Amino acid sequence: MKELITFKDVDNARKVLELSDVSSIENIKNSYRKLILKYHPDKYYDSQDKDTYEEKVKEINNSYKIIMNYCLKYPISLNRDKVKDVEDGEYIEDHLKRFYDGWVSDK
Q1: For 51, phi and psi rounded to 5 degrees?
Q2: Domains of the chain, with CATH numbers?
Q3: pTM above the 0.90 mark?
Q4: In the 8-state DSSP scheme, what is residue 5?
Q5: Closest CA to 60 of 6, 14, 3, 4
Q6: Cβ partners under 8 Å of residue 54, min gap 6
Q7: pLDDT (tens digit, 9 = 90+) per residue, 6-35?
Q8: Which pLDDT tens digit goes with each residue over 29-62?
Q9: Engineering a disulfide at 41: which of 35, 53, 85, 94 sits with its beta carbon 3.0 to 4.6 angstroms away?
Q10: Got the DSSP string for 20-52?
Q11: Dihedral of CA 55/5/103/75: which sign?
């Protein structure tokens, strides 16, 4: 059975990765790398909080997986008009419509 990703999953992952509402793949990867370097437990091998950092890295990795799965499965239009909308900065409305349509509710 196909696992559904809910808006709540993506939103929580976005917050863990410290991303804005609109991010590029490059921003997602950069944020992920920055957070992994910041919290990697190998930096804290003598610390009593090493377990806390290990859990934080697991949370960051899981969040990255959720966001990337969403991004990789999200259809991207290569149509001339859609590319033109991006050039003109008119992609936000279309993105929001497609992002929120079809989500499973948390009811």
Answers
A1: -60, -35
A2: 7-74 (1.10.287.110), 78-107 (no CATH)
A3: no
A4: P
A5: 14
A6: 41
A7: 889 999 999 999 998 888 899 999 999 999
A8: 999 999 999 998 888 777 788 888 899 999 999 9
A9: 53
A10: -SS--HHHHHHHHHHHHHHH-GGGGTTSTTHHH
A11: positive
